[in-house]
Design a protein that fits this description.
heterodimer, A: mainly beta, Maltoporin, Chain A, B: mainly beta, 5-stranded antiparallel beta sheet, 42% strand
């Protein structure tokens, strides 16, 4: 069955390739047909336009995690100083879709210590686009939304070289950052290469309280080269190598000795003159991740254990953009094949005793084939109707007999393979008239359970303090969503209020099974993944920007979320009322900014899911920048103080209430030639 | 198909042709490789080869006992040791050098102690298959040999009405892990509970076989019928945690061994704590595991 599907999709892929190549090629690659007047709900966070750091960023060399946090839709679950887990619309990894330039990648850690965002660097990326709910289903199924990390992109030009050197230092954790980038471009070829290294010691929370095991080291190397194959054809190869070592996770009982990723892709892009089909992009990709947890440095370990995990993914997508009368169309045919395996070996105190070995992810193979299409129908010059739909064939296969036997202890009737059919559909209406914009939308989407939810074996969750067992019999989780926004854009100000509501049926959570005895020493019990009737999540946020003068801008964000299950229990990691406001000054070579950020008391905490009350907090940050040149070298200098008042605080997203960083002075320097 | 369409464009591309060819080939090959790999990975292997039945498969010979007419060969799965041992027998006719197919076989194990001699639980001996020449049964050596005390095995057999006998000492070393419990129950009866299977435990739900006998006198150890052997597998090295969905061994038919299910969630050292229960549920021996009682007085050990 699967073979047939796969062959069918492969055939479609090649047929599409053939038909695309028969078009003529007079159009110049640089002049992309981009005349779309499309109102997107998606949010874009710009990291940097080129290899150079941007003086507009408050802290240009900060982590991707910190950039993502700026979005009103995204928050980050923090288990330490490194590798924060993004949550979109208050939903975490299982319910979201994170891609790098459309590539699917899956973390190799059973404890979510390596979200995809941890395998890239700011030096690799130019921007991040965030889609809410089903609008993010272009590259696969999602419930909460998607994050696509977009790589920096060079362009063909007259022959030129560009050199960049970036460097930073932070006092709180002695983080040293050094990065370099080389770009070359001519009319037929471009090559970008960049490197970045970070090395940080333990950070101090407010009042100089050292947070042990919060250190990390990371190197990242990436290169992209494009060749022009004709006036309107391009082939681009890209590779990212990322390696983090000695990463502490103060909120967890274990650290990470190594997390390593190789992310490679080859892309072909074709821009036919044909006005109807104006862009075709196809990519074949491969990535491999190795992740090893380490408890050898912890002082009190009831039993020493090794927990390595591996995740390999192959995939492709073929994306076509077309215009037909008033329709702006997007088709994306995509597929991936992932292999996820994780082990746990525990070493008894008696060295003569055999080690205790188990497969915590039983070599699960996931094959997904999906087709996404979107039609943006321009009703008139002010309004448009966007329709999108996707179908996907999702198959899980437990390849390891050892793993299958293990799970059959709990599910004697379990079959190694399970196929699913995933659907999504969404409809949005947008209008923009005289600066007043509004939109409403509704959508339905489904997702398959994650490897952990379906096949995890005695995975310890230190937040709830339970061992978790997957459930291969889970049904698809289904989400019904409505969203709306209203905004007003005038010369001096911009205000936007947007909101979304999700009703998620067959909502997957882990529930305690009192008949089972936990494996992990000190755990409260064992939970089995199961589907509860439904859960609801409501998000509302207000963003505003006021131009107080030519040089001064005042930006604010207010966010509030509420999440409950069908029995009115609060869900965990749902944002209380939170605010972020900044006043920025930018004139000529000088920039300055002051920020206030905080949360109200988190009273609607998910007690049932291991969460407790978090007090309110507020922190103040400030930064200053200066841009100048020495000879031909352009220099951008940024310096600032975070948490000026050295507040000791922890937020609702801090795993096991670990405190956040205290006062921190930083310097970021960018040199470019 | 792709090749043709690509090559048209290539003529214009001049210098890039070679680079492009390589690239294109790479794409093509990786596409082919990827799809090939995928197909390979997803093709289910179903090798239902029929093998000719070898009655001695997996067994190894541990002893030959000879008399004037025959050589009696003894086989077992693993080396014979204290506990439950499945033993297979072949009888070779010295004259014809062929294995005898039509013998009636019985046996008597004897422990020669300083002060006395006693036997142990044992089964009758059956032929494995009608046309074969292998006979099998089990013997439960409840104690190991030592420097002064030893086991002797006597095999009696009848061929075409004529009786023969062989006898020899056999080595029964102590088992490293506990496979047998010999105890006097609170009903005053002397019981023997032995572990038979799984031989090769796996991380899975294992089919478990144990045996329960009682000592009627020095020479007779009949099977105890209708009891239940309650099992509670634990890992003492890992917080003494248990495993789910075990089934306590019980009998299907009187005289049989006891069948149950043993769940092992990981490799390593497992202590299978036991309680022997009468048909009415009263416990004859063994304790329930609690925080205060980490192990039962009767148990088996396995390590893998």
């Amino acid at each position: 069955m699967k073979k047939t599907f796969f062959i069918a999709f492969l055939l479609i892929f090649f047929v599409v390739s053939y038909s695309q190549n028969s078009g003529n090629d007079k159009q110049v690659l640089e002049s992309k047909n981009d005349s779309l007047k499309v109102y997107q709900m998606q949010e874009v966070i710009v990291i940097k336009k080129k290899a150079t750091i941007s003086e507009q960023q408050s802290k240009p060399l900060t982590s991707i995690d910190d950039y993502l946090q700026k979005s009103v839709k995204v928050d980050m679950i923090k288990r330490g100083a490194y590798a924060w887990e993004p949550i979109i619309n208050s939903m975490s990894t299982e319910r979201t879709l994170v891609t790098i330039d459309g590539m699917r990648i899956f973390g190799a850690c059973t404890d979510k210590m390596d979200p995809i965002t941890s395998y890239v660097e700011v030096s690799n990326l130019s921007e991040v686009s965030i889609c809410s709910g089903q609008e993010g289903s272009c590259f696969g199924s999602t419930i909460g939304g998607s994050i696509d990390l977009k790589r920096s992109k060079n362009a063909f030009s007259n022959q030129k070289w560009n050199f960049n050197l970036n460097s930073g230092f932070e006092t709180n954790n002695q983080q040293k950052i050094i990065g370099a980038a080389i770009n070359y471009a001519d009319s037929l070829l471009y090559v970008d290469a960049d490197f970045m290294h970070r090395n940080a010691e333990n950070y101090n929370a407010g009042n100089d309280k050292e947070v042990l095991f919060s250190q990390f080291k990371k190197i990242n190397f990436s290169t992209t080269s494009g060749f022009k194959l004709g006036k309107n054809k391009l082939i681009e190869g890209s590779i990212i190598y990322d390696k983090a070592t000695d990463v502490g996770y103060p909120a967890l009982p274990m650290d990470v000795s190594i997390a390593e990723a190789i992310i490679a892709s080859i892309k072909f892009e074709y821009l036919p003159l044909n006005k109807k089909v104006y862009d075709w992009e196809a990519k074949v990709y491969f990535n491999t991740i190795t992740h090893k947890m380490d408890d050898t440095k912890r002082p009190f370990v009831p039993i020493h254990m090794d927990m390595p995990g591996w995740s390999n993914t192959f995939g492709y997508y073929s994306k076509i953009k077309a215009n037909y009368e008033k329709h702006h169309l997007l088709f994306n045919l995509n597929s991936f094949y992932n292999k996820s395996k994780a082990e746990m070996t525990m070493y008894p105190e008696n060295p003569n005793e055999n080690p205790m070995y188990m497969l915590t992810w039983p070599d699960v193979r996931t094959l997904y084939n999906g087709l996404f299409l979107e039609d943006n129908f321009i009703l008139n010059c002010h309004s448009s109707l966007k329709f999108s739909a996707s179908i996907g064939l999702h198959s899980n296969m437990v390849e390891s007999e050892f793993g299958l036997n293990s799970l059959q202890i709990f599910y004697p009737e379990m079959k190694p393979q399970r196929n699913r059919f995933l659907k999504s559909i969404s409809l949005n209406f947008n209008q923009n008239h005289n600066g007043l914009e509004f939109g409403i939308g509704t959508a339905y989407g489904e997702r398959a359970p994650s490897v952990t939810e379906g096949y995890g074996f005695y995975l310890f969750n230190s937040f709830e303090n339970y061992d978790n067992i997957g459930n291969p019999n889970l049904r698809n989780e289904k989400s019904l969503e409505v969203n709306a926004y209203i905004g007003l854009q005038k010369e001096k100000y911009y205000i936007k209020l947007s909101s979304s509501y999700f009703h998620i049926s067959d909502y997957i959570v882990a529930k305690p099974d009192m008949s089972l005895v936990p494996m992990t020493i000190g755990a409260n019990g064992v939970k089995i993944y199961t589907a509860i009737n439904y859960a609801t999540i409501f998000n509302i946020n207000l963003t505003s920007e006021f131009k107080l003068s030519k040089a001064i801008k005042w930006n604010s964000q207010l966010v509030y979320s509420r999440g409950k299950d069908f029995e009115n229990n609060n869900l965990p990691f749902i944002s209380p009322f939170s605010y972020y406001t900044t006043i920025a000054y930018l004139k000529n070579k000088f920039s300055a900014e002051i920020m206030l950020q905080g949360n109200a008391k988190h009273i609607n905490f998910g007690n049932l899911y291991g969460e407790d009350k978090t007090p309110d907090y507020a922190v103040v940050n400030a930064n200053f920048g200066y841009k100048f040149s020495i000879n031909k070298i352009k220099i951008i200098a940024k310096t600032g103080v975070e948490n000026i008042l050295d507040t000791y605080y922890s937020t609702y997203t801090d795993w096991n209430n670990i405190p956040r960083q205290g006062r921190n002075f930083f310097v970021n320097l960018g040199f470019s030639l | 198909m792709i090749v043709i369409s690509f090559s048209k464009n290539m003529e214009k591309a001049g210098i890039l042709i070679t680079k492009f060819k390589k690239m294109k080939r790479f794409i093509k090959y990786s596409a082919v490789c990827v799809s090939g790999l995928l197909l390979l990975l997803f093709s289910a292997c179903s090798n239902d080869e029929e093998t000719t039945v070898n009655e001695l498969e997996g067994l190894s010979k541990f002893k030959e006992i000879e008399n004037e007419t025959h050589i009696v060969e003894l086989y077992s799965h693993m080396s014979v040791e204290q506990g439950f041992n499945e033993i297979s027998i072949q009888i070779k006719d010295k004259q014809t050098n062929k294995y005898v197919k039509n013998a009636e076989v019985s046996w008597t194990p004897l422990m020669h102690m300083m002060s006395m001699t006693h036997s142990c639980p044992k089964s009758s001996i059956e032929k494995v298959s009608e046309n074969g020449n292998v006979y099998e049964g089990y013997i439960v050596f409840q104690m190991p040999q030592n420097e002064t005390e030893y086991w002797e095995l006597q095999v009696n057999y009848t061929i075409d009405g004529q009786e023969y006998s062989v006898s020899s000492n056999i080595d029964v070393p102590a088992s490293i892990k506990r496979r047998i419990n010999t105890f006097t129950g609170n009903d005053g009866v002397k019981y023997i509970v032995a572990y038979a299977e799984p031989h090769h435990p796996k991380v899975a739900v294992n089919d478990m076989i144990v045996g329960v006998w009682k000592m009627q006198d020095m020479m007779n150890f009949p099977v105890v019928d209708g009891y239940t052997v309650k099992i509670d597998p634990r890992m003492p090295s890992m917080g003494n945690h248990s495993s789910p969905n075990n089934v306590n061994p019980s009998q299907t038919n009187a005289g049989d061994l006891y069948n149950g299910k043993l769940s092992l969630t990981m490799t390593g050292y497992w202590k299978i704590n036991l309680q022997l229960a009468k048909p009415d549920g009263t416990i004859v021996k063994g304790e329930e595991i609690t925080d205060a009682v980490p192990e039962s007085s009767i148990f088996f050990e396995i390590e893998f």
